[in-house]
Amino acid sequence: MVLTAHAIVGASIANLMPNHPMLGFATGFASHFLLDSIPHWDYHLLSSKKDPQNPLNDDLILGKNFLIDLMKIGTDFLLGIIISILLFVDISNFSLTSFFTSAIFWGIAGSLLPDALQFVYFKWRHEPLTTLQRFHNWVQNKKKLKNEPVWGIISQLTIITTLATVSILIL
Predict the structure, then answer these.
(1) With pLDDT > 90 as the criterion, what percentage of the chain qualifies?
(2) CA torsion, points 67, 72, 73, 76, in degrees to nearest 10?
(3) How many CB atoms lie within 10 A of CB 120?
(4) Do 9 and 88 contact (CB within 8 A), yes or no?
(5) Among 25, 31, 26, which Cα is nearest to 9's?
């Protein structure tokens, strides 16, 4: 799944428990793996180096292509945060301090952390990151919608729209 989808789902779940930021973080973290288990589409990273024999050897190669990927990832990251804020935060009372202590922020952080830890693993292959990466690889749905971006995007939009709507309507 793209980071935007992970962030919005993490925020949607955390929105249901506004007085429990650490529970928001934990459920956001768990939601990441649940979403990755659903057939989905991901954008291609130019700096990605895949090892079909052993996915634990996959890597992101630092260089010109990585900078292009970083812009793509950064845009995706910011889009997820901005949409989550617009959906779940009272903008009229917005302050960075209240946002950074909110369950919404921690739900977003938890939902994005597994992919951030993948990058750390690629550059520092030690425990507990190796076990987490092995789990992350295992949970990834093997049916990728790589050549079907329209269906992949529609499926992600359906999931985030449903969860965000339920979360908003319940509160």
Answers:
(1) 79
(2) 160
(3) 13
(4) no
(5) 31
Give the 3-state secondary structure of residue 162: helix
Cα distance between residue 133 and residue 125, in whole Å:
9
Those residues whose C-beta lies under 8 Å from the C-beta of residue 170, and which sit 6 or more positions away, are: 16
Instruction: Flag whether the pTM goes above 0.90.
Output: yes
Q: Classify 48 as helix, strand or coil.
A: strand
Residue 126 and residue 115: Cα distance in Å, rounded? 16
Query: Across residues 62-85, what is the average pLDDT?
Result: 97
What stretch of H or E contains 42?
A: none
**DSSP line for 54-109:** -GGG-EE--SHHHHHHHHHHHHHHHHHHHHHHHHHS-GGG--HHHHHTSHHHHHHH
User: How many structural domains are present in the chain?
Assistant: 1
Q: Is residue 149 predicted with pLDDT exceeding 90?
A: no
The parent domain of residue 78 ranges over 3-170
Paired tokens of 9? 């789902």
- What would the mean pLDDT of 80-96 be, rounded to a whole number? 93
